[in-house]
Every structure is written in C-alpha cells, then in structure tokens.
Specification:
- 52% of the residues lie in helices and 2% in strands.
- The protein has a two-stranded antiparallel ribbon.
- A hairpin with a 2-residue loop joins β1 and β2.
- α4 packs across α11 and α12 runs antiparallel to α13.
C-alpha cells in the first residue's frame, strides 16, 4: 500500500514538472512544500482568514462521514431507499453529490448548487424558523469546541435582540480579526475527528452538521466560545438557525424532511468558499511561496536592517573621503556594509532571500524554514535567486567603485 502511494505521489510530481500546482491539488494534499496545504493554512492564518479553509475542511469531513454512513448501509444488505426513504426521495428530486454511493443512476447524480434555504418548501421554512425561535428563547448556548488553554482571546460580541452584528463583505475579512505579522501561536481549529468505534448513525450526521453550523455559520458572539467565528456568505447561502436537535430523534414529518437535507446541507456554501479561495487567496499564496521564500515579518526586518547598514556604510564612505584617508585602497572594504545593505534591501523588495534559496529553504513562519520539495517551484525560485544575486552584485560593485573613485578632500 505504501509503495502504491509513493508511486502515485511520484506520478503527480512528474505531471507538475513544468507547471504550478492547482488549488484542487493543494487541497487534496498532492503537493509538497512550500506550496502544500500546511503552508496555505499558515498563509491564511497570517491574514486572519483561516476560518474559510477550516470550514471547507470540516464540510469535506462531514461529507466523508455521510459517504461512510451510506456505504455501511449498503454493506448491511439494505438499500438507501429502504433505510432512509426521505433522503432517497430528496436525492432523486434534487440530485446527490454522493453519486452511486446511494444507488442513484449516474445521470441523476448531479447536485444542484442552490442553497439549502432555496430548497425548502414553505412548510419546512416555517418549521425551521419556529425551531430557531425556540432555541433562542431557551437561551441555548452550545460550545462547538471545548475551551483550550492558550487560545487567543478574540472578539466575542454580546448582541441583544435588537442588535445585529455587522457582517464582513468578503470571505477574507472575517470576524473583525486583522492580519498579523507576528503569526501568534494559537490552537488550530483543524477539523474535529469523529472516531468510528461503532457504526455511524444519523444522529452522528446531525451532530456533525450542528457542529459546523455553530462554529462557522451562527452569528459571531451567539455561541459562548472563542472558537465561534462566523464566515462571510452571500445572503442566499446563509443559514439563520439549525433545524434539528441532537438530543432527540426526529419524529414529525417536517423533522424527517429536514433530516434529509443534512448530508447536502453545506455543499453550496462549501463550493462558494472553494471558488473564493481559488480566485482570491490562492493566487496571492502562489505569488508569495512560488516566487518568494520570506514571510512578511522577516521581509520587514530585512528592510530595517538594510537601511541601518546602508546608513553605516555611507557614513563610513564619506568619512574616508572627507578625512582623506590613505591609501585609497582601504575604501574597497566598503563592499562589506554595501553588500549586506543591498542584499537585505533587494531581499525585501523581492521577498526572496537568495542565500536560503541556494540551500533549498523557504520560511514557513518568521525565521523558521523548511526544505523546498516541489520541483517546478524549486526551479522558479532558483532562477529568481540567481537574478537577485546578480542584481545585488551589480549594485555593490557600482557603489564601491563610485566611492573609491571620488578624490579625497580633508575638511
């Protein structure tokens, strides 16, 4: 099995020898550093937008859980139509992302991209609203994740009934958090793993869906946990309440109909987040990691150091000129501060440290590096490192020769 996986990984690498990876390849963990999923997560974390990726991964796991449930049903000798007639009817009418797993014909497996709210009839919408009102009236506050020591205290609003928390206008300006250069350590909100110590039940599916709703879709501050961060979604894709309860089995026909929406409940929202990341964050990630190897903080520090060293070099050069220090060959030692200054400044400009590139290193967090393993990215960065080195050598040579050629004049 390991040999087969290694062979498959090599085939994927060979297919990317002359191109950058696609976003789908990154999400499916087919890529290597510095353009793998871990680096993409760190990139979003620096922008304060990792909740979008967390949501996508959580929904992906929810859908995998549903697939496992359907497979367990079929292995037991029953059909989905016999075990869950409400979902069978729903999938037959609307299409299913689970395809032949639920026993549908290939032509009927196409999933509609309409939101869950648009799929509900008037009776189901009324039941959904009533259920949401009952939950709010009861003051229900379920934490989607346990409090963990060390979690950064982030904004938790306490809205009254009359207050509607302001929403962001893009998936990458989320929950009032701002990007950070320091990349402060905090507990990762990676997908929660639900162990399969027993057969998966529909209650497990409801629990998984409710966890996702409370963590990402309920308005920020309505759940008493620092892990509750509402992500931005267009109005047509927003869910204003969760229609089912994990404490009791659905009994009424309306609840059974709502239960049938659980497997596909977040698919439209997941597709929206995928497109948003692919069109917005992913191109910036490739520019940062496939064409550079520094983090913003590291690049800023190089700018400050470069300006300081340049000031020291210029001050020394003018001192040698106006003190008319002999012999003039001593001025050639100016190449030392000029080299440091120019390399720091050009590294900041290109967000690329050529010395690290020559050692096949790229920064993951400030001053922490990992080895570059993606072949095409390594080739791109090596070419840019050679250009940066050549440019730095030209600038250092020009500065050194200029200050060497200026005649001395003692003041």
């Amino acid at each position: 099995m390991d040999d087969e996986q290694n062979r498959q990984q090599e085939d994927w690498l060979n297919s990317r020898k002359n191109r950058l990876p696609s976003f789908t390849e990154v999400l499916s963990r087919r890529t290597r550093p510095p353009v793998d999923l871990f680096m993409f997560y760190l990139f979003l974390q620096r922008e304060g937008a990792e909740d979008v990726l967390d949501f996508w991964l959580d929904v992906q796991q929810h859908e995998n859980l549903c697939r496992a449930y359907f497979k367990d049903v079929r292995k037991s000798g029953r059909t989905i139509k016999e075990d869950w007639p409400q979902y069978w009817d729903y999938a037959r009418r609307r299409g299913s992302i689970y395809g032949t797993v639920v026993g549908l014909q290939p032509g009927a497996t196409k999933r509609s991209t309409a939101s869950t709210a648009e799929m509900l009839n008037d009776q189901e919408k009324l039941a959904l609203a009533t259920e949401g009102d009952e939950k709010r009236a009861g003051g229900r506050s379920t934490s989607p994740r346990p409090r963990t020591p060390g979690v950064d205290k982030e904004r938790i609003a306490s809205p009254t009934d009359e207050y509607d928390p302001p929403r962001s206008t893009t998936p990458f300006s989320l929950s009032g958090r701002t990007p950070t250069l320091w990349n402060a350590r905090r507990v990762s909100r990676a997908p929660t793993i639900i162990p399969r110590s027993a057969a998966i039940t529909r209650t497990d599916l409801v629990t998984s869906a409710e966890r996702i709703y409370l963590r990402y879709l309920s308005p920020a501050g309505t759940v008493g946990s620092p892990e509750n961060h509402e992500i931005y979604l267009p109005p047509a894709l927003r869910l204003h309440s969760f229609p089912l309860s994990t404490t009791q089995e659905p009994k009424s026909q309306s609840e059974l109909n709502m239960l049938a929406h659980i497997p596909d409940m977040f698919h439209a929202q997941k597709e929206y987040c995928f497109r948003a990341m692919e069109q917005d964050a992913f191109p910036r990630f490739l520019r940062a990691k496939a064409f550079g190897n520094l983090t913003p903080l590291s690049s800023l520090i190089r700018l400050v150091l470069g300006l300081i060293v340049l000031w020291v070099g210029l001050a020394t050069a003018f001192a040698l000129i106006f003190l008319d220090v002999e012999p003039k060959s001593k001025r050639f030692f100016l190449f030392i501060p000029f080299t440091l200054a120019v390399v720091f400044l050009i590294s900041h400009q290109y967000e690329l440290d050529p010395i690290l590139i020559f050692f096949s290193q790229s920064e993951s967090t400030p001053f922490r590096t990992l080895t570059i393993r993606e072949p095409y990215v390594k080739k791109l960065l090596l070419g840019r490192a050679i250009w940066v080195t050549t440019l730095a050598a030209i600038c250092v040579t020009a500065l050194t020769l200029i200050f060497w050629a200026v005649p001395g004049y003692r003041l």
